[in-house]
Protein backbone atom coordinates (compact mmCIF):
# COMPACT_ATOMS: atom_id res chain seq x y z
CA UNK A 1 0.00 0.00 0.00
CA UNK A 2 1.17 3.49 -0.82
CA UNK A 3 1.80 5.86 2.04
CA UNK A 4 0.74 9.46 1.70
CA UNK A 5 4.37 10.55 1.44
CA UNK A 6 4.73 8.42 -1.71
CA UNK A 7 1.82 10.22 -3.33
CA UNK A 8 3.72 13.31 -4.26
CA UNK A 9 4.12 15.29 -7.47
CA UNK A 10 7.00 13.05 -8.63
CA UNK A 11 4.77 9.93 -8.48
CA UNK A 12 2.61 11.38 -11.23
CA UNK A 13 5.33 13.25 -13.15
CA UNK A 14 8.36 10.94 -12.81
CA UNK A 15 10.56 13.07 -15.09
CA UNK A 16 10.69 15.68 -12.36
CA UNK A 17 12.18 13.12 -9.94
CA UNK A 18 15.24 14.58 -8.23
CA UNK A 19 14.94 17.87 -10.09
CA UNK A 20 12.73 19.69 -7.58
CA UNK A 21 15.34 22.03 -6.14
CA UNK A 22 16.51 23.14 -9.58
CA UNK A 23 12.91 23.70 -10.81
CA UNK A 24 12.16 25.78 -7.73
CA UNK A 25 15.33 27.81 -8.19
CA UNK A 26 14.58 28.36 -11.90
CA UNK A 27 10.98 29.42 -11.17
CA UNK A 28 12.10 31.93 -8.58
CA UNK A 29 14.76 33.22 -10.97
CA UNK A 30 12.23 33.61 -13.81
CA UNK A 31 9.76 35.46 -11.57
CA UNK A 32 12.54 37.66 -10.20
CA UNK A 33 13.82 38.51 -13.69
CA UNK A 34 10.27 39.27 -14.86
CA UNK A 35 9.75 41.62 -11.92
CA UNK A 36 13.14 43.22 -12.53
CA UNK A 37 12.19 43.85 -16.18
CA UNK A 38 8.83 45.26 -15.06
CA UNK A 39 10.54 47.62 -12.59
CA UNK A 40 13.13 48.72 -15.11
CA UNK A 41 10.44 49.41 -17.71
CA UNK A 42 7.92 51.06 -15.37
CA UNK A 43 10.22 53.20 -13.22
CA UNK A 44 13.29 53.87 -15.39
CA UNK A 45 12.40 53.66 -19.10
CA UNK A 46 8.81 54.95 -18.98
CA UNK A 47 9.59 58.09 -16.92
CA UNK A 48 12.43 58.84 -19.34
CA UNK A 49 10.10 58.43 -22.35
CA UNK A 50 7.30 60.44 -20.73
CA UNK A 51 8.90 63.17 -18.62
CA UNK A 52 5.64 65.15 -18.51
CA UNK A 53 3.91 62.48 -16.40
CA UNK A 54 4.17 62.55 -12.59
CA UNK A 55 6.82 60.13 -11.34
CA UNK A 56 5.58 57.04 -9.60
CA UNK A 57 7.00 55.52 -6.40
CA UNK A 58 8.54 52.17 -7.50
CA UNK A 59 7.00 48.92 -6.30
CA UNK A 60 7.57 45.22 -6.90
CA UNK A 61 4.16 43.63 -7.27
CA UNK A 62 2.23 44.84 -10.31
CA UNK A 63 -1.42 45.79 -9.74
CA UNK A 64 -1.19 45.81 -5.90
CA UNK A 65 1.58 48.38 -5.79
CA UNK A 66 1.59 50.08 -2.39
CA UNK A 67 -1.99 49.13 -1.43
CA UNK A 68 -1.09 47.26 1.76
CA UNK A 69 1.34 49.91 2.96
CA UNK A 70 -1.26 52.63 2.27
CA UNK A 71 -3.98 50.92 4.30
CA UNK A 72 -1.51 50.16 7.06
CA UNK A 73 -0.13 53.69 7.32
CA UNK A 74 -1.00 56.08 4.49
CA UNK A 75 0.75 59.00 6.17
CA UNK A 76 4.16 57.36 6.35
CA UNK A 77 3.79 56.14 2.75
CA UNK A 78 3.16 59.64 1.34
CA UNK A 79 6.02 61.01 3.44
CA UNK A 80 8.29 58.22 2.14
CA UNK A 81 7.29 59.05 -1.45
CA UNK A 82 7.95 62.77 -0.94
CA UNK A 83 11.39 62.06 0.49
CA UNK A 84 12.12 59.45 -2.24
CA UNK A 85 11.59 62.20 -4.82
CA UNK A 86 14.17 64.33 -3.00
CA UNK A 87 11.54 66.47 -1.30
CA UNK A 88 11.11 68.46 -4.52
CA UNK A 89 7.35 68.46 -3.87
CA UNK A 90 6.45 67.80 -7.51
CA UNK A 91 3.22 65.85 -8.18
CA UNK A 92 3.84 62.11 -7.76
CA UNK A 93 1.78 58.95 -8.17
CA UNK A 94 1.15 55.82 -6.11
CA UNK A 95 -0.41 52.62 -7.42
CA UNK A 96 -2.94 51.23 -4.96
CA UNK A 97 -4.71 48.02 -5.94
CA UNK A 98 -4.84 48.62 -9.69
CA UNK A 99 -5.53 52.35 -9.46
CA UNK A 100 -2.96 55.09 -9.92
CA UNK A 101 -3.57 57.98 -7.52
CA UNK A 102 -1.88 61.37 -7.84
CA UNK A 103 -0.59 63.37 -4.87
CA UNK A 104 0.14 67.08 -4.55
CA UNK A 105 2.33 68.39 -1.74
CA UNK A 106 3.62 71.82 -2.78
CA UNK A 107 1.74 74.95 -1.62
CA UNK A 108 1.46 76.27 -5.22
CA UNK A 109 0.08 73.01 -6.59
CA UNK A 110 -2.40 72.85 -3.74
CA UNK A 111 -3.65 76.34 -4.56
CA UNK A 112 -4.05 75.34 -8.21
CA UNK A 113 -5.92 72.23 -7.06
CA UNK A 114 -8.44 74.16 -4.97
CA UNK A 115 -8.96 76.87 -7.62
CA UNK A 116 -9.52 74.49 -10.52
CA UNK A 117 -13.24 73.74 -10.60
CA UNK A 118 -13.39 73.09 -14.33
CA UNK A 119 -11.42 69.87 -14.69
CA UNK A 120 -11.08 68.82 -11.03
CA UNK A 121 -14.48 67.59 -9.88
CA UNK A 122 -15.88 66.60 -6.53
CA UNK A 123 -19.50 65.61 -7.33
CA UNK A 124 -18.74 61.95 -7.88
CA UNK A 125 -16.94 61.77 -4.51
CA UNK A 126 -20.04 62.99 -2.62
CA UNK A 127 -22.26 60.75 -4.72
CA UNK A 128 -20.14 57.68 -3.87
CA UNK A 129 -20.13 58.71 -0.21
CA UNK A 130 -23.94 58.72 -0.16
CA UNK A 131 -24.08 55.28 -1.75
CA UNK A 132 -21.51 53.98 0.76
CA UNK A 133 -23.69 55.35 3.56
CA UNK A 134 -26.48 53.17 2.20
CA UNK A 135 -28.59 55.90 0.55
CA UNK A 136 -30.45 54.45 -2.47
CA UNK A 137 -29.16 55.25 -5.95
CA UNK A 138 -32.59 56.64 -6.82
CA UNK A 139 -32.44 59.20 -3.98
CA UNK A 140 -28.87 60.21 -4.84
CA UNK A 141 -29.74 60.57 -8.55
CA UNK A 142 -32.69 62.81 -7.73
CA UNK A 143 -30.49 65.07 -5.60
CA UNK A 144 -28.19 65.54 -8.62
CA UNK A 145 -30.98 66.18 -11.15
CA UNK A 146 -31.35 69.83 -12.17
CA UNK A 147 -34.93 71.09 -12.43
CA UNK A 148 -35.77 71.95 -16.04
CA UNK A 149 -37.76 75.08 -15.20
CA UNK A 150 -38.79 77.14 -12.18
CA UNK A 151 -42.23 75.54 -12.41
CA UNK A 152 -40.66 72.10 -11.96
CA UNK A 153 -38.41 73.19 -9.12
CA UNK A 154 -40.27 71.42 -6.31
CA UNK A 155 -37.45 72.00 -3.82
CA UNK A 156 -37.52 75.80 -4.02
CA UNK A 157 -41.32 75.80 -3.91
CA UNK A 158 -41.28 73.70 -0.74
CA UNK A 159 -38.65 75.94 0.85
CA UNK A 160 -40.24 79.18 -0.34
CA UNK A 161 -36.95 80.30 -1.96
CA UNK A 162 -35.79 81.19 -5.49
CA UNK A 163 -33.34 79.14 -7.52
CA UNK A 164 -32.93 81.22 -10.67
CA UNK A 165 -29.89 79.24 -11.84
CA UNK A 166 -31.88 76.00 -11.48
CA UNK A 167 -29.27 74.25 -9.36
CA UNK A 168 -29.74 70.66 -8.28
CA UNK A 169 -30.32 69.93 -4.58
CA UNK A 170 -26.76 68.61 -4.11
CA UNK A 171 -25.43 72.04 -5.15
CA UNK A 172 -28.04 73.93 -3.13
CA UNK A 173 -27.00 71.95 -0.05
CA UNK A 174 -23.59 73.66 -0.14
CA UNK A 175 -25.35 77.03 0.06
CA UNK A 176 -27.58 75.84 2.90
CA UNK A 177 -24.50 74.73 4.86
CA UNK A 178 -22.92 78.16 4.42
CA UNK A 179 -26.14 79.89 5.48
CA UNK A 180 -26.10 77.78 8.64
CA UNK A 181 -22.42 77.78 9.51
CA UNK A 182 -20.83 80.93 8.15
CA UNK A 183 -21.09 83.79 10.63
CA UNK A 184 -24.58 85.30 10.39
CA UNK A 185 -28.01 84.96 11.96
CA UNK A 186 -28.33 81.16 11.80
CA UNK A 187 -24.75 80.71 12.95
CA UNK A 188 -25.25 82.90 16.01
CA UNK A 189 -28.43 81.03 16.99
CA UNK A 190 -26.57 77.75 16.73
CA UNK A 191 -23.56 79.04 18.66
CA UNK A 192 -25.85 80.14 21.51
CA UNK A 193 -27.34 76.66 21.86
CA UNK A 194 -23.86 75.11 21.72
CA UNK A 195 -22.69 77.42 24.47
CA UNK A 196 -25.70 76.70 26.67
CA UNK A 197 -25.30 72.95 26.16
CA UNK A 198 -21.55 72.87 26.76
CA UNK A 199 -21.84 75.14 29.79
CA UNK A 200 -24.53 72.91 31.29
CA UNK A 201 -22.58 69.69 30.69
CA UNK A 202 -19.35 71.12 32.08
CA UNK A 203 -21.03 72.35 35.25
CA UNK A 204 -20.31 70.11 38.25
CA UNK A 205 -23.82 68.58 38.27
CA UNK A 206 -23.95 68.23 34.49
CA UNK A 207 -20.73 66.21 33.99
CA UNK A 208 -21.84 63.16 31.96
CA UNK A 209 -21.93 60.26 34.48
CA UNK A 210 -20.44 57.71 32.04
CA UNK A 211 -17.19 59.70 31.97
CA UNK A 212 -16.83 59.81 35.79
CA UNK A 213 -14.37 57.37 37.36
CA UNK A 214 -14.50 58.64 40.97
CA UNK A 215 -16.25 61.48 42.76
CA UNK A 216 -16.76 63.31 46.04
CA UNK A 217 -18.70 66.44 47.04
CA UNK A 218 -16.02 68.77 45.62
CA UNK A 219 -14.27 66.82 42.87
CA UNK A 220 -14.78 64.36 40.04
CA UNK A 221 -12.17 62.25 38.30
CA UNK A 222 -13.05 61.76 34.66
CA UNK A 223 -11.80 60.12 31.49
CA UNK A 224 -10.98 63.21 29.43
CA UNK A 225 -11.79 61.48 26.16
CA UNK A 226 -15.17 60.20 27.32
CA UNK A 227 -16.03 63.55 28.89
CA UNK A 228 -15.39 65.40 25.64
CA UNK A 229 -17.11 62.78 23.49
CA UNK A 230 -20.26 62.99 25.57
CA UNK A 231 -20.29 66.76 26.07
CA UNK A 232 -19.66 67.67 22.45
CA UNK A 233 -21.71 64.98 20.70
CA UNK A 234 -24.69 65.65 22.99
CA UNK A 235 -24.30 69.41 22.52
CA UNK A 236 -24.13 69.07 18.72
CA UNK A 237 -27.08 66.69 18.45
CA UNK A 238 -29.19 69.05 20.58
CA UNK A 239 -28.06 72.19 18.76
CA UNK A 240 -28.74 70.72 15.30
CA UNK A 241 -31.70 68.36 15.83
CA UNK A 242 -33.43 70.03 18.81
CA UNK A 243 -33.90 68.59 22.29
CA UNK A 244 -36.27 65.80 21.28
CA UNK A 245 -33.64 63.64 19.57
CA UNK A 246 -31.64 62.97 22.75
CA UNK A 247 -34.76 62.77 24.87
CA UNK A 248 -36.32 60.09 22.68
CA UNK A 249 -33.15 58.37 21.42
CA UNK A 250 -30.46 58.68 24.12
CA UNK A 251 -28.47 55.69 22.85
CA UNK A 252 -27.74 57.47 19.55
CA UNK A 253 -24.65 59.02 21.20
CA UNK A 254 -23.07 55.63 21.87
CA UNK A 255 -24.19 54.38 18.44
CA UNK A 256 -22.41 57.31 16.82
CA UNK A 257 -19.26 56.72 18.90
CA UNK A 258 -19.24 53.00 18.00
CA UNK A 259 -19.61 53.90 14.34
CA UNK A 260 -16.98 56.63 14.57
CA UNK A 261 -14.46 54.24 16.09
CA UNK A 262 -14.47 52.16 12.92
CA UNK A 263 -15.82 54.55 10.28
CA UNK A 264 -12.72 54.07 8.13
CA UNK A 265 -13.91 50.52 7.37
CA UNK A 266 -16.79 52.05 5.45
CA UNK A 267 -14.55 54.13 3.15
CA UNK A 268 -12.13 51.22 2.65
CA UNK A 269 -14.95 48.70 2.05
CA UNK A 270 -13.29 46.57 4.75
CA UNK A 271 -14.56 42.98 4.80
CA UNK A 272 -14.80 42.48 8.56
CA UNK A 273 -17.01 45.42 9.52
CA UNK A 274 -20.17 43.99 11.10
CA UNK A 275 -19.96 46.12 14.25
CA UNK A 276 -19.49 49.34 12.28
CA UNK A 277 -22.49 48.54 10.05
CA UNK A 278 -24.60 47.55 13.04
CA UNK A 279 -23.84 50.87 14.79
CA UNK A 280 -24.57 52.81 11.61
CA UNK A 281 -27.85 50.91 11.22
CA UNK A 282 -28.93 51.71 14.81
CA UNK A 283 -28.09 55.37 14.29
CA UNK A 284 -30.14 55.49 11.07
CA UNK A 285 -33.14 53.77 12.70
CA UNK A 286 -33.06 56.28 15.59
CA UNK A 287 -33.12 59.16 13.11
CA UNK A 288 -35.90 57.51 11.13
CA UNK A 289 -38.02 57.39 14.29
CA UNK A 290 -37.13 61.07 14.90
CA UNK A 291 -38.40 61.85 11.39
CA UNK A 292 -41.66 60.12 12.25
CA UNK A 293 -42.36 62.61 15.08
CA UNK A 294 -44.80 65.45 14.45
CA UNK A 295 -43.10 68.62 13.14
CA UNK A 296 -44.02 70.59 16.30
CA UNK A 297 -41.73 68.34 18.35
CA UNK A 298 -38.84 69.34 16.11
CA UNK A 299 -39.59 73.07 16.14
CA UNK A 300 -36.27 73.85 17.90
CA UNK A 301 -34.20 72.02 15.25
CA UNK A 302 -31.60 74.09 13.40
CA UNK A 303 -32.09 75.73 10.02
CA UNK A 304 -29.96 73.10 8.24
CA UNK A 305 -31.86 70.09 9.59
CA UNK A 306 -35.24 71.62 8.82
CA UNK A 307 -34.03 72.54 5.34
CA UNK A 308 -32.67 69.04 4.64
CA UNK A 309 -35.96 67.48 5.75
CA UNK A 310 -38.17 69.81 3.70
CA UNK A 311 -36.03 69.71 0.56
CA UNK A 312 -35.52 65.94 0.50
CA UNK A 313 -39.18 65.27 1.16
CA UNK A 314 -40.05 67.60 -1.72
CA UNK A 315 -38.08 65.19 -3.91
CA UNK A 316 -40.07 62.25 -2.47
CA UNK A 317 -37.05 60.84 -0.66
CA UNK A 318 -38.21 58.09 1.71
CA UNK A 319 -37.63 58.57 5.44
CA UNK A 320 -35.33 55.55 5.31
CA UNK A 321 -33.06 57.31 2.80
CA UNK A 322 -33.44 60.68 4.51
CA UNK A 323 -32.35 59.13 7.82
CA UNK A 324 -29.18 57.82 6.16
CA UNK A 325 -28.50 61.24 4.64
CA UNK A 326 -28.89 62.81 8.09
CA UNK A 327 -26.48 60.18 9.47
CA UNK A 328 -23.83 61.70 7.21
CA UNK A 329 -24.57 65.06 8.82
CA UNK A 330 -24.24 63.53 12.29
CA UNK A 331 -20.89 62.18 11.18
CA UNK A 332 -19.41 65.45 9.81
CA UNK A 333 -20.68 67.55 12.70
CA UNK A 334 -19.18 65.24 15.33
CA UNK A 335 -16.23 63.19 14.17
CA UNK A 336 -13.51 65.82 14.54
CA UNK A 337 -14.38 68.30 17.27
CA UNK A 338 -14.14 66.04 20.31
CA UNK A 339 -10.75 64.81 19.10
CA UNK A 340 -9.50 68.38 18.53
CA UNK A 341 -10.68 69.37 22.02
CA UNK A 342 -9.00 66.31 23.52
CA UNK A 343 -5.62 67.21 22.01
CA UNK A 344 -5.99 70.89 22.92
CA UNK A 345 -6.40 69.95 26.58
CA UNK A 346 -3.90 67.08 26.49
CA UNK A 347 -1.12 69.36 25.19
CA UNK A 348 -2.19 72.38 27.22
CA UNK A 349 -2.10 70.49 30.51
CA UNK A 350 1.58 69.62 29.89
CA UNK A 351 2.60 73.21 30.25
CA UNK A 352 1.67 74.95 33.53
CA UNK A 353 2.81 78.37 32.29
CA UNK A 354 0.69 78.11 29.19
CA UNK A 355 -2.29 77.02 31.31
CA UNK A 356 -2.04 80.14 33.45
CA UNK A 357 -1.54 82.39 30.40
CA UNK A 358 -4.67 80.97 28.76
CA UNK A 359 -6.56 81.21 32.04
CA UNK A 360 -5.64 84.91 32.27
CA UNK A 361 -6.55 85.50 28.66
CA UNK A 362 -9.94 83.78 28.84
CA UNK A 363 -10.96 85.25 32.22
CA UNK A 364 -11.91 88.46 30.43
CA UNK A 365 -14.29 86.52 28.19
CA UNK A 366 -16.57 85.90 31.21
CA UNK A 367 -18.83 88.50 32.79
CA UNK A 368 -18.95 88.77 36.59
CA UNK A 369 -22.02 86.55 36.60
CA UNK A 370 -20.15 83.92 34.59
CA UNK A 371 -21.67 84.49 31.14
CA UNK A 372 -19.25 83.68 28.35
CA UNK A 373 -18.91 86.27 25.57
CA UNK A 374 -18.54 84.11 22.43
CA UNK A 375 -17.32 86.96 20.27
CA UNK A 376 -14.57 87.86 22.74
CA UNK A 377 -13.56 84.21 22.89
CA UNK A 378 -13.36 83.98 19.08
CA UNK A 379 -11.51 87.24 18.47
CA UNK A 380 -9.61 88.35 21.55
CA UNK A 381 -7.85 85.26 22.89
CA UNK A 382 -4.76 84.93 20.63
CA UNK A 383 -3.00 82.29 22.74
CA UNK A 384 -6.04 80.07 22.75
CA UNK A 385 -6.40 80.57 18.97
CA UNK A 386 -2.76 79.62 18.52
CA UNK A 387 -3.25 76.48 20.61
CA UNK A 388 -6.27 75.43 18.52
CA UNK A 389 -4.42 76.09 15.25
CA UNK A 390 -1.42 74.07 16.41
CA UNK A 391 -3.74 71.19 17.29
CA UNK A 392 -5.25 71.43 13.80
CA UNK A 393 -1.78 71.49 12.23
CA UNK A 394 -0.29 68.70 14.30
CA UNK A 395 -3.20 66.27 14.54
CA UNK A 396 -4.80 66.54 11.11
CA UNK A 397 -4.65 63.59 8.74
CA UNK A 398 -7.35 64.46 6.23
CA UNK A 399 -6.96 64.50 2.47
CA UNK A 400 -8.87 66.54 -0.08
CA UNK A 401 -9.78 64.63 -3.19
CA UNK A 402 -10.90 65.51 -6.71
CA UNK A 403 -11.42 63.49 -9.90
CA UNK A 404 -10.08 64.83 -13.22
CA UNK A 405 -12.82 65.20 -15.84
CA UNK A 406 -10.26 65.88 -18.61
CA UNK A 407 -6.44 65.55 -18.79
CA UNK A 408 -5.13 68.21 -16.39
CA UNK A 409 -1.73 69.86 -16.15
CA UNK A 410 -0.46 70.73 -12.68
CA UNK A 411 3.07 72.02 -12.20
CA UNK A 412 3.97 70.95 -15.78
CA UNK A 413 2.85 67.38 -15.10
CA UNK A 414 0.00 65.81 -17.02
CA UNK A 415 -2.62 63.94 -15.01
CA UNK A 416 -4.89 61.77 -17.17
CA UNK A 417 -8.70 62.10 -17.22
CA UNK A 418 -10.71 60.12 -14.64
CA UNK A 419 -7.83 60.04 -12.15
CA UNK A 420 -8.12 60.69 -8.45
CA UNK A 421 -5.95 63.56 -7.23
CA UNK A 422 -5.24 63.90 -3.52
CA UNK A 423 -3.85 66.60 -1.23
CA UNK A 424 -2.60 64.91 1.95
CA UNK A 425 -2.79 67.58 4.67
CA UNK A 426 -0.08 65.94 6.74
CA UNK A 427 2.54 66.59 4.03
CA UNK A 428 1.64 70.29 3.98
CA UNK A 429 1.51 70.72 7.75
CA UNK A 430 4.97 69.30 8.34
CA UNK A 431 6.72 71.58 5.87
CA UNK A 432 9.60 73.29 7.72
CA UNK A 433 9.88 75.89 4.96
CA UNK A 434 6.41 77.17 5.87
CA UNK A 435 5.93 76.44 9.57
CA UNK A 436 9.52 76.91 10.72
CA UNK A 437 11.84 74.24 11.99
CA UNK A 438 10.70 71.74 14.64
CA UNK A 439 7.48 70.93 12.79
CA UNK A 440 7.59 67.51 14.40
CA UNK A 441 7.15 69.20 17.81
CA UNK A 442 3.93 70.57 19.23
CA UNK A 443 4.51 74.27 19.95
CA UNK A 444 1.33 75.82 21.38
CA UNK A 445 2.36 79.38 20.50
CA UNK A 446 3.58 78.59 16.96
CA UNK A 447 0.76 80.68 15.48
CA UNK A 448 0.94 83.47 18.05
CA UNK A 449 1.37 86.89 16.38
CA UNK A 450 1.65 85.22 12.94
CA UNK A 451 -1.68 85.85 11.22
CA UNK A 452 -0.12 84.94 7.87
CA UNK A 453 0.56 81.41 9.02
CA UNK A 454 -3.12 80.71 9.60
CA UNK A 455 -3.87 82.06 6.12
CA UNK A 456 -1.03 80.15 4.48
CA UNK A 457 -2.04 77.90 1.56
CA UNK A 458 -0.14 75.16 3.39
CA UNK A 459 -2.42 75.29 6.44
CA UNK A 460 -5.34 73.14 5.35
CA UNK A 461 -7.01 71.40 8.30
CA UNK A 462 -10.37 72.29 6.77
CA UNK A 463 -9.48 71.62 3.12
CA UNK A 464 -10.26 74.41 0.66
CA UNK A 465 -11.98 75.55 -2.52
CA UNK A 466 -15.53 74.36 -3.16
CA UNK A 467 -15.30 71.80 -0.36
CA UNK A 468 -13.79 74.13 2.26
CA UNK A 469 -15.29 72.89 5.54
CA UNK A 470 -18.21 75.19 6.39
CA UNK A 471 -18.04 73.98 10.01
CA UNK A 472 -14.64 75.55 10.66
CA UNK A 473 -15.98 78.51 12.66
CA UNK A 474 -18.23 76.54 14.99
CA UNK A 475 -15.61 73.78 15.34
CA UNK A 476 -12.94 76.22 16.57
CA UNK A 477 -15.49 77.83 18.89
CA UNK A 478 -16.47 74.48 20.40
CA UNK A 479 -12.85 73.72 21.28
CA UNK A 480 -12.34 77.20 22.72
CA UNK A 481 -15.56 77.02 24.77
CA UNK A 482 -14.55 73.68 26.27
CA UNK A 483 -11.07 74.91 27.26
CA UNK A 484 -12.26 78.25 28.65
CA UNK A 485 -15.17 76.79 30.65
CA UNK A 486 -13.13 73.92 32.12
CA UNK A 487 -10.39 76.34 33.22
CA UNK A 488 -12.94 78.67 34.78
CA UNK A 489 -14.96 76.01 36.57
CA UNK A 490 -12.18 73.78 37.91
CA UNK A 491 -8.61 73.33 38.98
CA UNK A 492 -7.41 70.63 36.64
CA UNK A 493 -5.01 67.86 37.67
CA UNK A 494 -3.75 65.12 35.39
CA UNK A 495 -3.63 61.88 37.39
CA UNK A 496 -1.06 59.11 36.86
CA UNK A 497 0.55 58.94 33.41
CA UNK A 498 1.12 62.62 32.64
CA UNK A 499 2.53 62.47 29.11
CA UNK A 500 0.38 63.20 26.05
CA UNK A 501 -1.03 59.98 24.53
CA UNK A 502 0.29 58.97 21.14
CA UNK A 503 -1.61 59.89 17.98
CA UNK A 504 -3.21 57.00 16.10
CA UNK A 505 -1.40 57.53 12.81
CA UNK A 506 -2.24 54.13 11.34
CA UNK A 507 -6.02 54.18 11.41
CA UNK A 508 -7.24 56.03 8.32
CA UNK A 509 -9.20 59.15 9.26
CA UNK A 510 -11.20 61.86 7.55
CA UNK A 511 -9.86 64.65 9.75
CA UNK A 512 -8.29 64.76 13.20
CA UNK A 513 -6.52 61.64 14.45
CA UNK A 514 -7.70 60.06 17.67
CA UNK A 515 -5.44 58.75 20.44
CA UNK A 516 -3.69 55.43 19.80
CA UNK A 517 -5.13 52.29 21.40
CA UNK A 518 -6.59 53.01 24.82
CA UNK A 519 -4.78 56.37 25.00
CA UNK A 520 -6.62 58.75 27.33
CA UNK A 521 -6.06 61.15 30.21
CA UNK A 522 -7.45 60.72 33.70
CA UNK A 523 -8.35 64.19 34.87
CA UNK A 524 -9.32 65.43 38.31
CA UNK A 525 -11.81 68.31 38.23
CA UNK A 526 -11.58 70.17 41.51
CA UNK A 527 -14.59 72.44 41.83
CA UNK A 528 -13.81 76.15 42.20
CA UNK A 529 -15.86 78.73 44.08
CA UNK A 530 -17.07 80.45 40.95
CA UNK A 531 -18.43 77.26 39.39
CA UNK A 532 -21.71 77.93 37.54
C1 LIG B 1 -12.05 70.24 14.02
C2 LIG B 1 -13.18 70.04 13.38
C3 LIG B 1 -13.30 69.82 11.89
C4 LIG B 1 -12.35 69.49 10.96
C5 LIG B 1 -10.87 69.28 11.18
C6 LIG B 1 -13.02 69.39 9.69
C7 LIG B 1 -12.39 69.09 8.50
C8 LIG B 1 -13.04 68.98 7.29
C9 LIG B 1 -12.39 68.63 6.06
C10 LIG B 1 -10.92 68.32 5.92
C11 LIG B 1 -13.33 68.62 5.09
C12 LIG B 1 -13.13 68.26 3.62
C13 LIG B 1 -12.55 69.42 2.88
C14 LIG B 1 -12.14 69.07 1.50
O1 LIG B 1 -12.42 67.99 0.98
O2 LIG B 1 -11.49 69.92 0.91
C15 LIG B 1 -14.59 68.98 5.70
C16 LIG B 1 -15.77 69.09 5.02
C17 LIG B 1 -16.96 69.36 5.62
N1 LIG B 1 -17.17 69.66 6.94
FE1 LIG B 1 -15.78 69.76 8.37
N2 LIG B 1 -14.36 69.66 9.85
C18 LIG B 1 -14.57 69.92 11.19
C19 LIG B 1 -15.77 70.23 11.78
C20 LIG B 1 -16.97 70.33 11.13
C21 LIG B 1 -18.22 70.63 11.75
C22 LIG B 1 -18.40 70.91 13.25
C23 LIG B 1 -19.18 70.62 10.77
C24 LIG B 1 -20.65 70.86 10.85
C25 LIG B 1 -21.27 71.27 11.90
C26 LIG B 1 -18.52 70.31 9.52
C27 LIG B 1 -19.14 70.21 8.29
C28 LIG B 1 -18.52 69.89 7.12
C29 LIG B 1 -19.21 69.73 5.84
C30 LIG B 1 -20.70 69.89 5.60
C31 LIG B 1 -18.24 69.41 4.90
C32 LIG B 1 -18.44 69.12 3.41
C33 LIG B 1 -18.21 70.38 2.62
C34 LIG B 1 -18.53 70.18 1.14
O3 LIG B 1 -18.10 69.22 0.54
O4 LIG B 1 -19.21 71.03 0.59
N3 LIG B 1 -17.18 70.14 9.79
N4 LIG B 1 -14.39 69.20 7.03
Automatic annotation (TrEMBL):
Membrane-spanning intervals of the chain: 20-41
InterPro entries: CYP450_sterol_14alpha_dmase, Cyt_P450, Cyt_P450_CS, Cyt_P450_E_grp-IV, Cyt_P450_sf
Positions of heme binding: 469
Alphabetic keyword roster: Heme, Iron, Membrane, Metal-binding, Monooxygenase, Oxidoreductase, Transmembrane, Transmembrane helix
Keyword Iron-sulfur: no
Superkingdom in the source lineage: Eukaryota
Pfam families, per database record: p450
Family assignment from sequence similarity: Belongs to the cytochrome P450 family.
Protein known as: Cytochrome P450
Organism: Amniculicola lignicola CBS 123094
Amino acid sequence: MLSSSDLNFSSFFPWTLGRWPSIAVSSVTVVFLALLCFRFWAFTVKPWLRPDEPRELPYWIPYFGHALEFVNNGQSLTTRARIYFKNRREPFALTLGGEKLYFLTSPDDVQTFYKNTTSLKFESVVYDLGIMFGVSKQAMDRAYEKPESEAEDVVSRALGTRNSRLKCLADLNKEFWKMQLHPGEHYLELQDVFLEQIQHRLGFAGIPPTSVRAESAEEKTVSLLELLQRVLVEAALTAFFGAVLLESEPSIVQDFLDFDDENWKLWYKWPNADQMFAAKGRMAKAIERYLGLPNEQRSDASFIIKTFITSQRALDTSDEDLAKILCMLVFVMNTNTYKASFWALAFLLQDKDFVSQIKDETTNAFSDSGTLDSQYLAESCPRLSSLVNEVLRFCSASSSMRVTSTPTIINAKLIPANSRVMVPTHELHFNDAVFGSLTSQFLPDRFLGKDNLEKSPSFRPFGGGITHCPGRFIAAQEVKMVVAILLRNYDLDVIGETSVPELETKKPTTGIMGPKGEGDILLRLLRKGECM
